[in-house]
Description:
The chain is α/β, with parallel strands linked by helices. 41% of the residues lie in helices and 14% in strands. It has helices at residues 9-17, 34-44, 57-66, 76-83, 86-90, 99-106, 125-141, 160-182, 192-200, 221-228, 254-257, 273-285, 320-332, 343-357, 374-381, 390-399, 401-408, 424-427, 454-464, 477-483, and strands at 24-28, 50-54, 71-75, 111-114, 120-123, 210-213, 234-239, 262-265, 301-303, 314-317, 337-339, 419-423, 432-437, 444-446, 449-451, 467-472. It has a 6-stranded parallel beta sheet with strand order 3-2-6-7-1-8. It is globular. 40% of the residues are buried.
Amino acid sequence: MARFLSPTAEQQRIIDAVPSGGKLKIKAYAGAGKTSTLRLVADRLSQRRGMYLAFNREIAEQARRSFPANVSSGTIHSLAYRSVSPDLAARVGYPAEPPHELAARFGLAALEVPLATGKPVELTPFELGRMVVDGLGRFCRSADAVPAPVHVPIDEKIDPRAADWLRSALHPYVARLWDESRHVRGRSAIIPDVYLKVWAQSSPRIDSDFILFDEAQDSDGVMLWLLNQQTHAQTIFVGDPYQQIYEWRGAVNAMAQISAPEYALTESFRFGPAIARLASRLLALLGENVPVRGQDSIGSIGVDDPSLSPPVDAILCRKNVSAIWHLAVGVESGYRPSIRMSPAEIVAYADGADALLGSRRAYKPAAFSLFETWKDVQSFARSAVGADLLPIVRIVDEFGTDYLRALSQRVASESNSDYVIATVHRAKGLEWKRVKVVNDFLFKYVDGRLAVEEDELRLLYVAITRAQHLLDISDLRDDLMRLLAPGR
């Protein structure tokens, strides 16, 4: 990211608006210098105490090193951890209660529900216990005062009517777990979201004159609610609504919900006009009329010919299984790839496949949940809706599960690798000179026309804006042509 000797016109408008003292929200496109802008804001408010807050610990640590002395930096979770009872905070380190043991303690027995296909499937006590724990997490991340059925996550493979019944049936157990988790004399383990929720419900006051809240588009509902209570401080929300990609864990688009004067950073300092034009066309599909502007001084090129296949610094995938497949391809081709995934995550696919091959249910990874045998996985992977599992099925069928375990030990460190493999979610906030985007996105055809959900378009926007100089979209060429065709 470029360091600015003087503010741009867009940055200057923001700096000039800061002394008003009211809330501000800054819509910052990918690579548009939001961190530099926040530093300029902090300099403008040098006589006041500030707090920079981010969801990601790594980003907060970077800010701690680069922001002026009048600004403290951290995550909202770190503020909560220091503020709640030490006895409550200590429970994060306690051994977690296994889901099946929680289910037994709550009296939850196995039950049968229909899948969307009509086939019945048994939900084991382990799965029911995990749904209760996940429901607690979703409640804690929401702005709601008490748990509700909507907080219980249900696998999308389950029939919708059965899913509604299941949410209502499990909701009382989520409420019970919440009561146990927040109780002052509790002795059980808690997840970090619990102490954040407990702190938020205590009406805390963040001791700062102004708050810089970064990556606001991915904030949880509880975070947004908490910051809106800080009426004593000027809060400046910064984010890109088109990089909101964590809805599945309860994130809300604060940029759409905040009522405050809005300013924009539309000039990206990451890439040149060629990548900016493609990003702007995706933004237009999302209803955005203002394009992102690239730098004429940065040479950027898009590659859409599969026969060229230039070397890259990063390969970005939609799915974990695709990332593992590309890791295998790289290793077998004699390269030293790195992958932004732990060895344990790769081994989990081997363990899960072994369980299913032995006709036992697999509880990890989540992609294998609700399958009863490996044949079920194979059949699902051959269907249109399950094609994203095909890479891992091919590896297991052709090479065996021990190959996955060996593969997990052949990952190079990023500093010593030929290139990095990552999912789009784990690439967010990062950039590389040369990027290839893999076509495992959820493109669908409805009545012969290509249809893409908004959350999928946002993922695609994040993916292509990680590139600085070269963007290889050859895998996506045909679908992108249909998606971006005039008059579609």
